[in-house]
Amino acid sequence: MAIKVKELPISERPYEKLEMYGEKALSNAELLAIIIKSGTKEESAITLAQKILSLGKEKNSKQDNLEFLQELSIEEFMQIHGIGKIKAIQIKAVCELAKRISRPINVLKIKVKNPQDIANLVMDELKVEKKEIVKVVILNSQNIIIKIQTISLGGSRFAHVEPKDIFVEAIKRSATKIILIHNHPSGDATPSEQDCKFTKKIEEVAKLIGIELLDHIVIGNNEYASIKAHLLKKGRIQ
User: Fold this and answer.
1) How many CB atoms lie within 10 A of CB 148?
2) pLDDT at site 66
3) Order of strands across the sheet that contains 212-219
4) In Å, what is the CA distance from 206 to each residue of 54, 164, 214, 226?
5) Cα gap 168→216, rounded to integer Å
6) How many angstroms separate the CA atoms of 202 and 183, rounded?
7) What is the pLDDT at residue 162?
């Protein structure tokens, strides 16, 4: 029978250790054990946490890289004996909180100077998504962000987006410029031919209604690509 957490020396129990030494002193397993709260008769919360972390190796995750936790479904967590639906939901909730905390506190009033500025705003959110998500950044004439709006949640392929969905909010706000963003779940940010054709189509519509499409940014896993730059390099735009 495994040693229970309460049978450990006080200085080694996750709750007490955090209180005494601070959260940075705890291992990933100990932090996760606090979220799990309790183990089973056979295994402690720390052992269960270690089993969850071992799933990262199965997904070829680098050591101490916890991003895989955001990718796991409730059902995948529940495949571990001792992790029921409630514990799985608690872990998913913490993962989502971590993702939201990593976002900029206030994206409004940020002036966009280059594609990197946009990538910095959405990278942590989109790089772990397994479905394609399309966002539109609405800007004023000084390239200051008015709003970032999610307009489509797609499947594993390119999300279905209608031009009207892209421009409706920009028109409401009398915006003069927009930037499109979408992610590649594969992690490879290289623009596809479909991405390029879609961008040129949206640019044509934008010109008709007097709104400038500044760029279309593709987000991969810690990488991004500007479709405008890609098309320029290929000699398909001037």
Assistant:
1) 20
2) 84
3) 145-153, 133-139, 177-183, 212-219, 224-226
4) 48, 10, 10, 18
5) 17
6) 17
7) 86
- Per-residue pLDDT, 180: 97
Angle between helices 28-36 and 14-21 (to 10 degrees): 120
Amino acid 233: pLDDT: 86
Reduced to 3 states (helix: H, G, I; strand: E, B; else coil), residue 213 is strand
User: Which DSSP string do the residues of 163-188 spell out, in sequence order?
Assistant: HHHHHHHHHHTT-SEEEEEEE-TTS-
Q: Are 134 and 169 in contact (CB under 8 A)?
A: no
What tokens were used for 136?
């539109």
- Structure-token match 């946490």, residue found: 49
Say whether pTM exceeds 0.70: no
Weakly modelled stretches of the chain, pLDDT under 70: 1-7, 10-11, 58-64, 102-108, 155-159, 238
Distance CA 103, CA 51 (A): 29
Buried b / exposed e over 80-102, threshold 16 CB at 10 Å, is bebbeeebbeebbeebeeebeee
DSSP labels for 99-146?
HHHTS-S--TTPBP-SHHHHHHHHHHHHTT-SS-EEEEEEE-TTSBEE
- First-last CA distance in the chain: 70
User: Can you give the pLDDT at residue 96?
Assistant: 86
